[in-house]
Amino acid sequence: MTRHDTVSLPTGTVPARFRPPTGSSDAASVSLDGPWRFRLFPSADTGADPADRGDGWDTIEVPGHWQLAGAPDAWPYSTPAYSNVLYPFPVEPPFVPDANPTGEYRRTFELPERWATGGRAYLRFEGVDSWFEVSLNGTPIATSHGSRLPTEIDITDVAVPGENLLAVRVTQWSALSYVEDQDQWWLSGIFRSVTLEHRPEAGVAHARVLADFDHLTGTGSLTVDVEGATGGRVTVPELGIDVAAGETATATVEPWSAERPRLYDVIVTAPGETITLRAGFRTVSIEDGVFLVNGAPVKLRGVNRHEFDPLRGRAVTPERMLEDVLLMKRHNVNAVRTSHYPPHPHFLDLCDEHGLYVVDENDLETHGFIDGGWTGNPVDDPAWEDVLVDRATRTVRRDAHHPSIVLWSLGNEAGSGRNVSAMAAAVRALDPTRPVHYEGDWSSDDVDVYSRMYATSEETELIGQGIEAPLARAEADARRRQMPFVQCEYAHAMGNGPGGLSDYDAIFDRYPRLMGGFIWEWIDHGLTRRDADGTEFAAYGGDFGEAFHDGTFIADGLVLPDRTPAPSLIEVAAVFAPVRIDEVPGGDALLVRNRYAFRDTSHLTFEWSLHHGDDVLASGTFEDLRLAPGEETIVRPPTDLPLPTPDHTPTWWTLRAVQHTADALDESWFDDAAGPFVVSAGQVTVTPAVAQPVATGRAHQAADGIVTVGHARFDARGTLLELHGRPVAELRVDAWRAPTDNDRREGSWTDLSDESVWKESGLHLLAERKISAEITDDGAFVVTARTAGPRTRNGFRTVYTWRPVADGSDDVDLHVSIVPEGRWGQSIARLGVLLVLDEPGAEDVEVRWHGLGPEESYSDSRVAAVGGSYVHTVRELQTRYTHPQENGARRGVTHAALRFPDGSDLTLDASPSRLGGRSVTGVELSLRPWSDSALDAAAHPHDLVPDGKLWMHLDAAQHGLGSAACGPGVLPNARLRATTAEVSVRFVSRQG
């Protein structure tokens, strides 16, 4: 037997074979999942006798990771650790530290008596991390690795009738850890299922399925090659196919695609076994540099998916897999890259059934070698060739029968070298029907698609046009320019982000060469921990006391660890919508585009409404609007709409594409309980917002210096003391926000992070100095001030103009004029007014607003935001990101009615703001029960405690989000620079 610290192929195993769906074979099997006896040792040389039954040892559940055996309360077998790129051990391959936690597993099983009459008995491990040795009845029989790949062992000649003792030794670290540096928690153990399988004589040892589709004739061709038996037959009852294994049959079929995932039962019968496979007829091809499925150009609007459960790590259950697939389908995701390893095989069954294109990635990443210029990288070391080719071979052999797989990926972030060619050749020898992908091969010598990660939108557009920077080798450059281009990772979804997704999507649509991309990534990998006081939270790097970790970088998903969709997933659904409804230049009509490749819009109803504030003024449907795949049309509002008199709230005409019912191919993901499925929405402003009527009342000053403006009270210096009977803690201009994860990092090709720039300008420590306060001749109370941070000459000169709406009215208007002074950096965080009210029950304040919603939106993440009327509590307005940061902004707010727990009200009516001389509808409204400083300081959501105040931002604008945490920062079209701004708000109240 080989050791864990050697570079060698698995020993004692049988050749890789396909994995049909659970229950699809009539061959017998016995699950070995459940409780196993377990003991953890500090090093790989455990000294444990494989004949030792483990009596008196602990019990652990298989599948599972030993680090999570007691989660969320206890960690009896060491704790998880997270690193992104760099190895958490010295880089001296193939060696790993002597301190190498190693688990010894034991269980017994009974070999069924009937199996002894013929056939073979196999042990199958679906996944073990990282290296393991298998012993049966005290005798070592196999060693294996490839943590996310199956291992099968023929135990026929070692097993005995009756009880057998199975011993498995698993090391946390091994030589193979060098090729599994995959940006996730380092978790160990038998984390996928173990089965005892009967392989009958003349059974189906392996089946190779070729189910092609000719889009010109509508004909499908089916060939199933069977290994392990002769005389097999293949039948497809629905199509009337009945042929010998290895023969090709043709029939008129409905093709498979992610849009219409049509599957047929293919029954493979051998003398000793019958298996039912689910086959989809489809063809993947590349023509003239365009990626095609069934002869049609297809855009991959995808996500990268790690396998993750907040309590079970990578030991994901079928229920969790289905939850992921359904969430993706319901948010218009059509593709998945299985980063960075083959997923559990059941996940691929679900992709086949529900309809998702899959890039199936080999179990390979050596990213840590980048620190040192890739010296010693296994991908360029001939000693590793057999091991890496073995991994690629096992991936293809296991998964090739799945129609959902449209690309093979050789791995991720593993540099370049000779073994890329070897793996590509092995993949093509097994399956020449699918293109080969590998981002690390920028020259594209060994692949079929040109792939990059985090290319800027500018560079992506150049690639789309075919005018990107040339390669040094002319022949390689010419070949690459004939390839489609995919962003295998882009739009890094860390925390509040990504921003700029719609910019990328528009570029993908513009150029046929661009086949789309995969957002990084699907889920925050926050592991559930429970504090001593019982508080649960999602833990990230460093929360387990690791000395070496990459912190919050593991919290970068579109869904939170419990799979609650983050606002970014709502934005993804809008951007990725297969039918887009977008305002045309000029803003008087909507462009409706059918982006389905194979489906017309007959399953959708196009419903419109005219609405102003809370009122729906008219509604209807376009009965005859039906678009063929790829077709588009311009739709205008009816000319006879009952338009209201213009006021400070715009009147919107909104068009929605709605699916009310599901046919047989949609019903698997369609959620009847949720009601009609809104595929997309778009709107135009038919009556723009205008300024409110000019206030005419006069302010008054008492003998004690107190100034009264309606229900607003000020001291003589101009400090706001009270607003509509509620004490005011602070009012000033603000230009700071609690930095997002993207704000904290330098974007691609930038020197400083946005946070650094803002701190350099002192925005996080702004203070206000009153310059003057006076009642003018026309009765307005005008306060002039300057707001600035420490050590800087920059600042904001501000004029606050207060006036009662009318004499005798308690309602009051505030107009704020802001002028920046000094030399400013590349951006500021926000520009507007911070108003802080005393309110012990701030979380329970109800907010009804007119503006964009219902979720948060920002200048570069706004496609999902639709103008309308919405209601939330302040608690509900917060987004509980795994790592707290700026969140919750609602844009274009023209009316916000606040109802306090004591029954009193405060209503804010905003006239159009001005930013740099241009008009902006309403304000960007944020409401919190804690300060931005507290939000910035918090490590986890439970660190945030209401402080008895309601913190209210009324902004003319806020900086965009970008994806600087890994990729480009905020694009120029969403960057907020210091400029002049005006905000106008009317405060109205009644006491409850």
Summarize the structure in short:
By secondary structure, this protein is mainly beta. The longest helix is centred in the middle third of the chain and has 15 residues, at 385-399. 53% of the residues are buried.
What are the SSEs and their pairings?
Layout lengths: L28 E3 L2 E8 L16 E5 L18 E3 L18 E10 L8 E6 L2 E2 L1 E6 L2 E6 L6 E4 L7 E10 L8 E2 L2 E3 L2 E2 L3 E6 L6 E9 L4 E9 L5 E4 L4 E4 L3 E5 L11 E7 L2 E7 L4 E4 L2 E4 L2 E2 L2 E5 L13 H13 L4 E3 L7 H10 L2 E5 L3 E2 L18 H15 L5 E5 L8 H13 L5 E2 L12 E4 L3 H9 L8 H7 L4 E6 L10 H10 L3 E6 L7 E4 L5 E4 L27 H9 L3 E5 L6 E5 L10 E8 L2 E8 L9 E4 L15 E9 L17 E11 L12 E2 L5 E3 L2 E3 L5 E4 L2 E9 L19 H7 L6 E9 L5 E8 L6 E10 L7 E10 L8 E9 L7 E8 L12 E8 H4 L12 E4 L1 E5 L5 E6 L2 E3 L2 E3 L2 E6 L3 H6 L11 E10 L22 E8 L4
Parallel strand pairs: 12-29, 26-27, 26-34, 27-28, 28-30, 30-31, 32-33, 33-34
Antiparallel strand pairs: 1-15, 2-3, 2-5, 4-13, 5-11, 6-10, 6-15, 7-14, 8-9, 8-11, 16-17, 17-20, 18-19, 18-21, 21-22, 23-24, 24-25, 35-36, 37-38, 38-41, 39-40, 39-42, 42-43, 44-45, 45-46, 46-47, 47-48, 48-53, 49-50, 50-51, 51-52, 52-63, 53-62, 54-55, 54-57, 56-61, 57-58, 58-63, 59-60, 59-63, ...
Helix pairs in contact: 1-2, 3-4, 5-7
Textual characterization of the structure:
With 992 residues, this protein is mainly β. The strands form 14 sheets. Strands 49, 50, 51, 52, 54, 55, 57, 58, 59, 60 and 63 form an 11-stranded antiparallel sheet that branches. Strands 44-45-46-47-48-53-62-61-56 form a 9-stranded antiparallel sheet. An 8-stranded parallel sheet has the order 31-30-28-27-26-34-33-32. The radius of gyration is 31 Å and the shape is globular. The termini are far apart. The mean pLDDT is 96.
